[in-house]
Amino acid sequence: MMTFVHRFPFMPLVLVTLLASGCTPLSDRRPDQVDRREAVLTTDVKGALIGSAQVSAASIRVDLEAGTLVLHGFVDSEGERSEALRIARRIASGTPVEDRLEIR
Q: Mean pLDDT, to the nearest integer, of 15-44?
């Protein structure tokens, strides 16, 4: 009876390659990998804003510009602005967040 490693001798190399590619610094990644990371981050932040009862997410746009997460749009109060920024910073964890929100 052949074991998995005998049937697929290349599999350990594939696994090591996949694991190592996950450790590549962002600056060394291909543009499509960076774009995917940006899409995931902005989608996660927008989803968290939508899930908040204190934030009207429909009037807030989330972008990633030169490595900085940027919130654009309008809020109804300083409290709503603070909550949106708190959520964005929590989700972005380590990515700078810039406030371009305006109170209407």
A: 64
Distance (Å, rounded) from C-alpha 97 to C-alpha 70? 6
Q: What is the pLDDT of residue 37?
A: 82
Q: Domain spans of the chain? A: 29-103
What is the layout of strands, in order, in the sheet containing 97-103?
60-65, 68-75, 97-103
CATH class for domain 29-103?
A: alpha beta
Instruction: Please say whether the beta carbons of 97 and 68 come within 8 A.
Output: yes
Where b means 16+ CB within 10 Å and e means fewer, 17-55 reads eeeeeeeeeeeeeeeeeeeeebeebbeebbebbeeeeeb
State pTM to two decimals.
Answer: 0.67
